[in-house]
Amino acid sequence: MKTEYQQDALNRARGNTSALNYDAIYRGMTAKGIPSGEIIPRENVLTLPAWNALGRKVKKGETGVRVTSWIRYTDKLGQEQVRPTSGTVFHISQTQEA
Fold it and tell me: How far apart are CA 88 and CA 17, in angstroms?
């Protein structure tokens, strides 16, 4: 069952165009033995909630790659700000159908 949070995570992953964390994704995934040619961020490398929205779950014992993303937001004074946030991503080979 898709929750609103899971769907939002999937929409953010697919709708974002920033490539700032791609280097960390490629380094981390290749260190796990996943060939770089099989790594496509935002398509087959997603967060747990995004995979859940697609009806997949992370296999038991799998560990993801920690990445930092930058989130834009409007502060209390109405000024646009940017802050870092971190998350963990998983390759599709680390998941299975739920």
Answer: 18
